[in-house]
Amino acid sequence: YIYICCCFLRAVSQCLELEETAAAANEWDSDTFGRPPAKLSGMISQFFVLSLRGDNIVFRDYRGDVPKSSAEIFFRKVKFWTGEEGEEAPPVFNVDGVNYLHVKVAGLLFVATTRVNVSPALVLELLQRIARVTKDYLGILNEDSLRKNFVLVYELLDEMIDFGYPQTTSTEVLKSYVFNEPVVIDAARMPSLGPAGMFIQGTKRMPGTAVTKSVVANEPGGKKREEIFVDIIEKISVTFSASGYILTSEIDGTIQMKSYLSGNPEIRLALNEDLSIGLGGHSSYEYGGSGGMGMVSLDDCNFHESVRLDDFDLDRTLTLVPPDGEFSVMNYRMTQEFKTPFRVFPVIEEAGPFKAEVVLKVRAEFANTITANSVVLRFPLPKSTIRVSFDLEFGAVGQSPDFKETNRTIEWALRKIVGGSEHTLHAKLTLSQERNVNLKKEAGPVSMNFTIPMFNASRLQVRYLQIVKKSKSYNPYRWVRYVTHANSYVIRI
Fold first, then answer.
1. What distance in Å separates the CA atoms of residue 246 and residue 244, rounded to the nearest whole number?
2. What is the pLDDT of residues 297-314, one digit of tens each?
3. Contact between residue 377 and residue 423 where contact means Cβ atoms under 8 Å apart
4. Is 442 exposed, middle or buried (0-12, 13-18, 19+ CB in 10 A)?
5. Which residue, of 15, 290, 301, 486, is most buried by count of CB atoms within 10 Å of its CB?
6. What does the buried/exposed string (b/e) look like for 6-41 if buried means 16 or more CB atoms within 10 Å of the residue's CB?
């Protein structure tokens, strides 16, 4: 009898707590000036996608507490951001009590608004995942694909976000609730990705546009091409001193995977046998194999939840069942010394009254079988610079130097640089002052952007990609691509 009474009292107490929580939620909803309870602090009011021209492509209002003109207010604020010269708007800012949070993906602005003091990291991660899920379903993420699939996009949004609260961002889970078929955009109409968009399998090469397929759409003929794509993407940050020594160096890398395999088979991904993880090369993942020359030492790493590390200590093999869509198998960071892909030698000297001369030399220090694309060097000049004339080396092709008067910067764009080659740019400056004692102090530092396909500075390699399947005749296509980008490549003068 006593036990039954205790259970009854506990049930009554739980009902009272639920009523109090509901009352607090209703009270806050009716009072736009009140602060929300902690449990309600993870919501957004609106979500919309804008083009870089400001066109509103997708718009969803979840709570009605933010003006409908928020998209126009946001775009005007971003376009005419009143920060330092050349500075872009930050990912999070507030206008008239409304918090705007945005990310830029594939030339589109994914934006969320809220009046609540939400966690910025949570909302920015949510926007990134919405973009990723949309790309998984549409295959190609751009303005054209969104407009042609607006019914599917709104259906995805309704499943991912309910009344401003995130529900799920898993492509695999959404397959059970979303049934609209995407209108597939022809990949041949997309701009060429160049060598950076090439996947490789042994001696075979395949365009990167092959991965721009929807994970849910059926191919013509109803037959699905069995294949899997693996990207090893690295962003390097290096700072050189004026004398050419490396002051700081860091690599942020990720192994991304996108699977088009039927039946979700188990996959074994093998990395370098001499891989060590942890500062100084010592950690719980330490492997006492072939050390010495060629050893890859990562500072730290983390893995996707589907990865099993049963054999990682033994032979550096990752085992996983890949979920639908694109995902990061492994993220890693490296601060050990590594061979930098470029060396830059900037020089600025006086050349007479009201004149100065700049010499900018760049040398590619990787194999001549590799070509860097989209290389851009920026050299800030003294504030007294009023005019610049350029002199390119003989036979220069695909190079375009320019002087940006708004921020007094030389911008030297090179379409491609072959490994082992060297290029030089001469520039003659006209100054508004006869003598500038702070010529070198006002100039620089030089910054550099580039993309190098089939190159990775950390030397992390995929030894093999094995697909565990009972049938011996099952042999899907496996494609691997290495890409290195410049995150912050700075050379001081």
1. 7
2. 888 899 988 899 888 888
3. no
4. middle
5. 486
6. eeeeeeeeeeeeeeeeeeeeeeeeeeeeeebeeebe
Instruction: Supply 358's token pair.
Output: 């700049």
153-191 CB burial, b ≥16 within 10 A, e <16: bebbbebbbeebebeebebeebeeebeeebbbbeeeebe
**387-425 core/surface letters (b: 16 or more CB in 10 A; e: else):** ebebeeeeeeeebebebeeeebbbebebebbebeeebeb
pTM of the model: 0.69
Length of the chain: 493
Q: Residue 394: which residues within 8 A CB-CB, separation 6 or more?
A: none
pLDDT digits 0-9 by tens, 318-332: 998 888 778 889 999
Amino acid at 475: N
8 A C-beta contact, residue 422 and residue 361: yes
DSSP code at position 36: P
Residue whose pair of structure tokens reads 């565990």 in the numeric block: 468
- Which DSSP category does 88 fall into? P
